[in-house]
Amino acid sequence: MHEELLNPYRHGASLIHRLPAPVKLLGAAVGVLVSVLLPRTAWPAYAGMGAGLLLVALLTSVPLRHLGRRLLIAEPFAVGVALLALLQDHGLQMFLAMLAKSTLCLSCVILLNSTTRFTDLLQVFRRLRVPPLLVVTLALMHRYLFVLFEEMGRLRRARRSRTFTSGRVFAWQLTATVAAQLFVRTSERAERVYAAMCARGWKL
């Protein structure tokens, strides 16, 4: 699952892969915007967009299993947000509409980052004059997410190798301990990285 989250890009030679990154980013942005602006009862439009995204997915030559797995990872967040609509009038209709919109938006983003390298997207952001601090933050976040997941794996293995107790309560305590240690190590690493960057003349 970590691989699905951290390294979504899948190399390919399809027409979609060969498109310039700005074109793909614009297409994804338009898809998200159209999905958000569609009326709640526009079910044929939802179905049409879904069919169009499925066609694009087939053109990318990326395995549908990979795309579907990534969508399932993100879908619980969409369901959680849509559940709030059930508390309002016509809640079921609003819930289904929000779920459809969220699924379409997620599909656009998944297709984008499955066919476009993250570094290419950062280059597009620079050309669009996105604030440099935001671009640098995104680049560092992407790089150090891999480091943090590796660190978390090492902490969990070390804790388990020193533990001989089982049980649900203990499992929660173990998770909380690892999370706390990871937070401390992350803060220390961030300070060291920032100090090293400044020592090498880095400035925004």
Structural domains: how many: 2
Helix proportion range: over 70%
Strand content: under 5%
Tell me the overall shape.
globular
What's the tally of helices? 9
* Model regions low in confidence, pLDDT < 50 over at least 5 residues: none
End-to-end separation in angstroms reads 34 Å
Q: Kindly report the average pLDDT value.
A: 83
The largest β sheet comes out as: none
Structural class: mainly alpha
SSE topology sketch:
Elements: H1 2-6, H2 15-18, H3 21-37, H4 43-60, H5 64-83, H6 91-115, H7 118-127, H8 132-161, H9 168-199
Helix pairs in contact: 3-6, 4-6, 5-6, 7-8, 8-9
How is this structure best described in words?
- There is one protein chain.
- The relative contact order is 0.10.
- The chain contains 9 helices and no strands.
- The two termini are 34 Å apart.
- The chain has 2 domains: 2-125, no CATH class; 131-199, no CATH class.
- α4 (43-60) packs parallel to α6 and α8 (132-161) crosses α9 (168-199).
- The protein has helices spanning 2-6, 15-18, 21-37, 43-60, 64-83, 91-115, 118-127, 132-161, 168-199.
- The protein has 204 residues and is an all-alpha fold.
- The longest helix has 32 residues, at 168-199.
